[in-house]
Amino acid sequence: KNMTGDQVDEFLEARAAQVDVMIGTDSGSANLNVLTKDFDDTIKVFNEILRSPAFAEDKLRISKFQATSGIARRNDNPSGIMNREFVQWQMFGWGRSGLTDRANILP
Fold first, then answer.
1. Long-range contacts formed by 29-36: CB under 8 A, 24+ apart
2. Spatial separation of the C-alpha atoms in residues 36 and 17, rounded to whole Å
3. How many Å apart are CA 13 and CA 6, to the nearest integer?
4. Which residues, 6+ apart, have CB-to-CB distance to 5 below 8 Å?
5. Which residue among 12, 59, 77, 80 has the highest number of C-beta atoms inside a 10 angstrom radius?
C-alpha cells in the first residue's frame, strides 16, 4: 500500500502491465493492461492509484516547468503562430469578411 510513483512504475514494469489515466475538461478515462496471471495483484495497485493518487512535489515541479517552457516556446515556430491565428479567424467568422472589414474590427 501507498507506493511511491517510482515503486508503482517498477511494479508495473516487472509485470509488463500498463496503467493510463487521462482527464480532460469534459471527461476522463483510466485503462489497465495486464496479463491474466498478474491481474489480482495489479488491480489492487490500479485501485489504489484511482482512489488515493499521489503527487510528488518534485514530479509536479518538473511537469509545471515543462508546461511553462512549452508555452514560452510556442511562438518559436512560425507555422504554429499561423495555425493558432488562422483558427481564431475562422472561429470568429472573420475569414468570411474582406480585408477592409477585418481591419475595422481590430483595435
1. none
2. 10
3. 10
4. 54, 56, 59
5. 12
Q: Which single residue is written with the C-alpha cell 482512489? A: 51
Q: Which of 44, 36, 34 is nearest to 14 (CA)?
A: 34
What pTM value is reported for the model? 0.59
Q: What b/e readout covers 81-90, taking b as 16+ CB neighbours within 10 angstroms?
A: eeeeeeeeee
- Cell for 87? 483558427
CA dist., res. 42 & res. 45, Å (int): 5
Please give the distance of CA 16 from its chain centroid, rounded to a whole number. Answer: 23
Between the two ends of the chain, the Cα-to-Cα distance in Å is: 58
Q: Give the integer Cα–Cα distance in Å for 67 and 73.
A: 10
pLDDT of res. 40: 96
Dump pLDDT digits (tens) for 43-91.
999 999 999 888 889 988 998 999 888 888 877 878 877 777 777 666 6
